[in-house]
Design a protein that fits this description.
Number of domains: 1
Number of strands: 2
Strand content: under 5%
Distance between the termini: 38 Å
Shape: globular
Helix content: over 70%
Length: 271
């Protein structure tokens, strides 16, 4: 218990330093916030242009597709707020900086996630605003069940995102440089989760459901929340939407086991 309490104190100190950094560099923060708003705006505009041409995608209208995007963005930004620094691991291994994590009396992954930097929750704030607008457009019925489902999708989706990024980062213990793979996976995640899973070929649906389960970040929870049990001929069991936390936990545990194996075999890069 004492060790756990020490970790929480260190984590609180980490966020305190992040906040002080934010306050010190106000211009940088607001420039980045403006970029975030522009980025989200361009994504929403793209959805609007596509849906204005096709009116619906397998029964999903513009407001529902926007809700799908908002639910994904909520989980994705939650993951970035807490775990984005795991993407630095390949660079740290390549430059020999990872070695310092191994000589300190703290879990290496914990150190990776709490290393000094400018990790701000501005994306998450924007995501909450976007989601609030999206749920209003689809007239979401709020209840204890819907709150639990959204919280589960947000948490489970963040763990799925983190687990996949952690697995990719762990490969650097063997391959050293993985920048391309990381960006390819991130591009797949950002592009394919914007639209209903049912519009894709069966092979793509299998990959997004069982290999890289991005569909559990937004699509399956959204079908449950919006009561879409039949999506353009693609039958969806409403219970699947509740599985996001379990899928996220499974991905995290598997990725962490892989990470532990990578750390144990790591011998440095000779830098």
């Amino acid at each position: 218990m004492a060790e756990l309490a020490a970790h929480w104190r260190n984590y609180a100190e980490y966020w305190r330093l992040n906040f002080l950094t934010l306050v010190e560099y106000k211009a940088n923060f607001f420039i980045w916030l403006a970029f975030t708003v522009v980025y989200v705006g361009s994504s929403v505009t793209t959805l609007w242009v596509i849906l204005s041409q096709f009116r619906s995608l397998n029964g999903w209208d513009l407001t529902q597709v926007f809700f799908l995007y908002a639910l994904f963005y909520l989980a994705h930004t939650f993951s970035n707020t807490l775990f984005f620094s795991v993407g630095n691991v390949p660079y740290q291994i390549r430059e020999g900086q990872f070695d310092r994590f191994l000589v300190r009396p703290l879990n290496p992954l914990y150190q990776v996630l709490t290393q000094p930097g400018q990790n701000w929750p501005d994306d998450l704030f924007v995501a909450l605003i976007v989601f609030g607008f999206a749920q209003w457009l689809v007239h979401l019925h709020w209840s204890l069940a819907s709150v639990a489902l959204i919280a589960g999708a947000m948490t489970g989706g963040a763990l799925i995102d983190f687990g996949i990024q952690l697995a990719i980062a762990t490969l650097a213990f063997w391959v050293i440089r993985l920048d391309t793979l990381r960006w390819v996976v991130m591009s797949l995640e950002n592009d394919f989760t914007r639209y209903p899973l049912s519009i894709y070929h069966r092979a793509v649906r299998i990959v997004l459901s069982y290999v890289l389960p991005f569909a559990f970040m937004n699509y399956f929870p959204a079908t449950t929340l919006l009561h879409k049990t039949s999506d353009g001929g693609y039958a969806v069991n409403p219970a699947i939407g509740w599985l996001s936390p379990l899928v996220g936990l499974a991905w995290f545990l598997a990725a962490y086991a892989f990470w532990t194996r990578g750390v144990n075999r790591y011998q440095g890069t000779g830098s």
